[in-house]
Amino acid sequence: MKWPRARWSCSPTARQIRRVPPARSRSTSISSSEPPAAACRSRLRRSSPVPRRDEPTALTRGQAEERLAAAVYGNPSCNQPSRHRVTGGPIPTLKGEKEMSLFVRKRSAGLVVVATASILVTALAGCSSSSTPSSTGSSGSIKIALVLKPLDNTYFGAMAQGAQAEATKDGVSLTVVAADNVTDDSGQAAKLNALATEGYDCYIVNPTSQTNLLTGLAPISAAGTPIVNLDLPIDTSAAKSAGVNITTYVGTNNETAGQAGGKAMMNLLSKGDGVALIGGLVGDPGSNARLKGFTDAVNGTLTITQTVAADFDKAKAKSAAATILLANPNIKGFFTPSGDMALGIQQAVEEAGKKGQVAVIGIDGTQDQLKDIVAGGEPAAIEQFPYLMGAQSVQACIAAHSGKTIPTSVETPVLTVTKDNAQAALDAFPAPPSDFVVPNPFQ
């Protein structure tokens, strides 16, 4: 292939130098007569133009000579010839005693010559024979999809934080999608379906119901891709019927958390005192398990006056508590399976003038709950570390992808928070306090 002669122009007043590149055909093939290093230069010629800079980059004469030669004629580290490939003479150099500014010039042919730091980075990269993505550790190529309940709920937001922190630490890729609300069964399922064909190595699912994601999980499971069930357990019999194999479950034992709430309430009240329960969604298995654990723990010591549902909604919980306080002014405590609902209930208690007289305990241990305990509001909370759940779900994916044998279920611990340890819990939030060490169960 015969190369046309390059044309150079120089403006001595502006001390600027530009190169008008020769016209080339669209073919990117390399002549067999070119030296082996031509492939390196060829990559530079085919690279996309670097975006135009608004301001010039000032270079000294020596820098300009060296870098322009590297950018236009090839990087010296690519074993480029020292002679001009067309004329056979020496490669042109820049003349002048002062510093010169090199600018981007776009020609009508659409070709751009860029003598800036950005193209120099490209030139250096062009010497590599392949592109390897950066990673941390041996799991850098793993792609994980995380499907959650709504992120505007602080509990599920903390899950996402923990998962992202662990993914960043381990050098894996994490994609997070979430339902619009806690009852968005079809919307969450559609978001999973959109990810199902994207080639993820592991799927973590925190479903809005025990069955809403099974249709989307069936082809994922059939392909042998690991599935980690987070927080709300998927119905095992329905999963079996749908052909879905759950690799492992990561979450709190909800009955255990409810029992911890019952023990904390008994430490605050006297035998025979009345307690009202304000649950989440009617029929929600997690809410029901927590209420059952609480009821079992206080049985024979405290009296359950009534149980109502508030749909995991703070405002609804506040309204329900206000109604109960009016109907039963002798009530001594409220228990709820949700941190956000606990805050609403506490507001109702304080507005009724009963702060310090009616105990409110909720499960979750959100940041606002911890702040409220520190400020003298709620007397206690059961912190269950959704942040830790998110982190452990990523650990499970990495272990499953590497072929390790992992447990079918991992129970994340809970911590009873009172005024004595609330500040330490708040300082560490959303992670567990420093003295609450939980080892990686998937190592």
Automatic annotation (TrEMBL):
The keyword Signal applies. GO terms for cellular component: cell envelope. Residues 1-63, 74-93 are annotated as: Disordered. Residues 144-404 form the Periplasmic binding protein domain. This is Sugar ABC transporter substrate-binding protein. It comes from Microbacterium ginsengisoli. It is found in: Cell envelope. One of its GO terms (molecular function) is carbohydrate binding. Residues 22-41 have a biased composition (Low complexity). Belongs to the bacterial solute-binding protein 2 family. SUPFAM superfamilies: Periplasmic binding protein-like I (SSF53822). It comes from the Bacteria. Keywords: Signal. The keyword Signal applies. InterPro entries: Peripla_BP_I, SBP_2_dom.
